[in-house]
Design a protein that fits this description.
Elements lengths: L1 H12 L10 E2 L5 E3 L7 E3 L7 E14 L3 E14 L2 E19 L2 E9 L10 E4 L16 H21 L4 E5 L9 H15 L2 E6 L5 E2 L5 H8 L5 E3 L3 E3 L6 E7 L8 E6 L6 H9 L12 H10 L3 H15 L5 H4 L4 H9 L1
Parallel strand pairs: 4-9, 9-10
Antiparallel strand pairs: 1-11, 2-13, 3-12, 4-5, 5-6, 6-7, 7-8, 10-15, 12-14, 14-15
Helix pairs in contact: 2-3
Length: 344
């Protein structure tokens, strides 16, 4: 059984590129793919002396049931120049999402509570049957709203960085595609701020699942094709989607790296892509994760809400809520936790 499965896996990952033309395969409308071609590989020329703001965010549910969820949202920026960390700032918000019946619908409404370093977020509402939050045909879980809010927090922080012109360029963790309800409004505000203040905007995805027309991974195909030590690949597609104002690249930042990443730049600034890629490549020599910008590693570390911190906050809230008739709500969702402890 295992040998057969291993042989099948090896057949998948070792298959030869099919003869004929191969194209990137997008799942949505608004993408005109270009044929995969060796001529689209370009060598990276590292650039220095650019002030870069790396932005990331994290979230963790502190307590919750099927009809409410209290989460901590944390967003931060880290400034680097010439591979030196110049400083950072982090911002937090406590977000309480509750289910509300309104106009014959169940809405998830989120309100925010100030902390010592709060960020400016307004009340947000989602329909519980929002297809962007749902999994399959089931009503979205109320905790999923926090994941959307985390993304909005990143974009709001990036807008603030652009308005204050804290850096020459901004690098987001992820991409520039709008996939959430109301996300496009946040992105448009960010684009406007970057245009007004001459700040370059880009994003880098740690993972990518973009396929080719023959069912392979585009990143794997490009890795097999290239003989360059470090490179960027472009063009990939002409993007006309109104929810994706970006120019797309694939990049291998360091000769010793085993990773290829998807890189995007705000499409009005695509002429500066090579310069930004060069600046990021100069930030990718740290052995902690060689070939990945150290600034994003730092941003992830600062924004991340660890298990110990989460459990400490949970204990504080539960202590305050003891004897407040909350147990019958928490028990609506904690059966899995009990089974996990039994199994362990």
């Amino acid at each position: 059984m295992f040998d057969e499965a291993i042989e099948k896996i090896l057949a998948v990952i070792n298959k030869k590129d099919a003869f004929g033309e191969i194209y990137p395969k997008f799942s949505g409308e608004g993408y005109n793919s270009f044929k995969v071609d060796l001529k689209n590989f370009h060598e990276i020329q590292p650039a220095i002396n650019k002030k870069i703001a790396f932005i990331d965010a994290g979230n963790a549910e502190i307590i919750g049931s099927s009809n409410f969820s209290l989460s901590l949202i944390r967003a931060c920026y880290v400034i680097f120049q010439n591979n030196k960390k110049l400083g950072f700032r982090k911002f937090e918000a406590l977000a309480l999402t509750q289910a509300v019946g309104e106009s014959n619908e169940i809405l998830y409404k989120t309100s925010f509570f100030k902390t010592n370093n709060s960020m400016d977020l307004q009340e947000i509402s989602f329909n519980s049957l929002d297809s962007n939050l749902m999994v399959g045909m089931n009503r979205a879980e109320i905790g999923s709203a926090a994941n959307a809010i985390r993304r909005f927090a990143e974009l709001r922080l990036a807008k603030s960085v652009a308005e204050q012109k804290i850096a020459d360029m901004i690098v987001l963790d992820g991409n520039l595609q709008s996939t959430l309800t109301n996300e496009n409004a946040y992105l448009k505000e960010l684009y406007s701020s970057c245009d007004k203040n001459d700040v370059k905007l880009s994003a880098l995805s740690k993972t990518t699942s973009l396929f080719t027309s023959n069912g392979d991974l585009l990143s794997a195909v490009l890795t097999r094709m290239s003989s360059l030590a470090s490179w960027f690949y472009h063009p990939i597609a002409e993007i006309s989607s109104l929810s994706h104002n970006a120019e797309m690249f694939f990049v291998k930042f360091h000769e010793k790296s085993r990773h290829v990443f998807r890189f995007e730049i705000y499409n009005k600034q695509k002429e500066f892509a090579e310069e930004i890629i060069g600046a990021l490549a100069a930030n990718c020599a740290d052995p902690v994760f060689i070939g990945y910008p150290y600034g994003l590693i730092e941003a992830d570390r600062i924004a991340r809400i660890g298990k110990n911190e989460k459990e400490s906050l949970k204990a504080r809230f539960l202590f305050k809520l003891q004897d407040k008739n909350i147990e019958k709500y928490l028990s609506s969702r904690n059966a899995h936790e009990i089974l996990d402890r039994i199994s362990f």
